[in-house]
């Protein structure tokens, strides 16, 4: 139910739709792995949004480091 809105959220930071979809999928896998450890099921959408934003930021940091490395080399 939240997949499309999460992809749109990721696309605000990342310009590649394929990467946005991967970021969202990783967020869902993260939630699934926690399983019963998640105590407040009503907070899942907020957790997913945070995970997507963190994943997009991480992607941008890795991309920036890679570009800087290519400029130095």
Question: What does it look like?
Answer:
With 73 residues, the protein is mainly α. It contains 3 helices and no strands. The longest helix is centred in the last third of the chain and has 29 residues.
Fold topology:
Blueprint: H1 3-11, H2 17-34, H3 44-72
Helix pairs in contact: 1-2, 1-3, 2-3
Strand coverage percent: under 5%
How many angstroms does the end-to-end distance come to? Answer: 45 Å
Estimate the global geometry from the Cα principal axes: elongated
Count of strand segments: 0
What is the multimeric organization of the chains shown? Answer: single chain
H/E series: HHH
Q: What is the overall pLDDT average?
A: 90
Structural class: mainly alpha
Task: Please describe the biggest sheet, giving its number of strands, its sense, and whether it closes into a barrel.
Answer: none
- The helix count comes to 3
Helical fraction equals: over 70%
Return Rg in Å: 14 Å
Low-confidence stretches: none
């Amino acid at each position: 139910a939240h997949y499309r809105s999460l992809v749109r959220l990721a696309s605000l930071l990342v310009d590649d739709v394929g990467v946005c979809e991967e970021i969202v999928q990783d967020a869902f896998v993260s939630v699934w792995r926690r399983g019963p450890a998640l105590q407040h099921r009503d907070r899942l959408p907020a957790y997913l949004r945070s995970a997507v934003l963190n994943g997009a930021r991480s992607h941008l940091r890795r991309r920036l480091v890679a570009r800087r490395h290519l400029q130095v080399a």
